[in-house]
Amino acid sequence: QVQLVESGGGLVQAGGSLRLSCAASGDIARINIMGWYRQAPGKQRELVADIDGDGITDYADSVKGRFTISRDNAKITVYLQMNSLKPEDTAVYYCNMKPFVYPTYEYWGQGAQVTVSS
């Protein structure tokens, strides 16, 4: 059984910072891409950032320059450092891991609430 366990969400004032972590455990296939998605109330889930095995990253325009994604392959862990947070960043954040056999399957975390107050 595969588990992705997220941590680091919470409540922060606008302009503040949070760091999300997501660690994988279990019989996990070799991971290619690790990423973070978010879903705000009434909106579709959207990609926030992802990173491949070579360290190449991709960010949503709305978070460029403020968020940084990184990964630790040995620990099968992905991080999201979020700085200069805005109220519009409020959402449930989900980590995602795509093995090389994707799209046959992929893994999702349980979600972490991030709330940014104005």
Notes on the structure:
- The protein is mostly beta strands and 118 residues long.
- 0% of the residues lie in helices and 54% in strands.
- It contains no helices and eleven strands.
- Strands 2, 4, 5, 6, 9, 10 and 11 form a seven-stranded mixed β-sheet that branches. A four-stranded antiparallel β-sheet has the order 1-3-8-7, with no helix packed on it.
- Strand 4 and strand 5 (46-51) form a beta hairpin.
- The termini are far apart.
- The mean pLDDT is 95.
Short description:
By secondary structure, the protein is an all-beta fold. It contains no helices and eleven strands. It is globular.
Query: How widely separated are the two ends?
Result: 40 Å
- Into which percent range does the helicity of residues fall? under 10%
Number of strands: 11
Overall pLDDT metric: 95
* Oligomeric status: single chain
Helix/sheet category: mainly beta
* Overall 3D form: globular
Estimated radius of gyration: 14 Å
As residue ranges, the low-confidence spans are none
N-to-C series of helices and strands: EEEEEEEEEEE
